[in-house]
Amino acid sequence: MIERRIVTDALAALLGTATGKPCGIGALPLVGGKPAETPYTVLRSLTLSLAGAPFTDLHEDASTHYQVDCIARQHTQAEWLADRVRTGVLGRDAAGQWLRPLSIPGWSCYARGVSLDAGPEDDPAAAIVSYVIRFQLDWTQAG
Fold first, then answer.
1. What is the pTM assigned to this prediction?
2. Distance between CA atoms of 10 and 87, rounded to whole angstroms?
3. What is the mean pLDDT of each run of 10 residues along the chain (143 residues)?
């Protein structure tokens, strides 16, 4: 069975590399023990679906769902960060390979998609802008 924590850690690392900005898991990221300056992302684990062969309990397939909150001070900065997040998760090269692989021992991520792209949500009272994107990652056990 796929270990969710390993997937979450790999996706958070991918987001940090793809954006060049800090990524927190479920919370504001820390940089040097202090809260990160904007812009940054927060990765949240959502649902997990498992499926397997009809007469076994091997759970050979899994779908993991995540939400990425892009946090910024300005609308354009939030959109810039969201563009980097989408490219990092969904981008492919000319041969159709992922630009940023997700390497999980024993598993292969064969499909990635956006299930929600909510766009920026300005909150003038809070002086921040958040942009929410939800992704589905589909996995199968590597044979």
1. 0.90
2. 16
3. 90 98 97 96 91 61 94 93 98 96 91 92 79 95 78
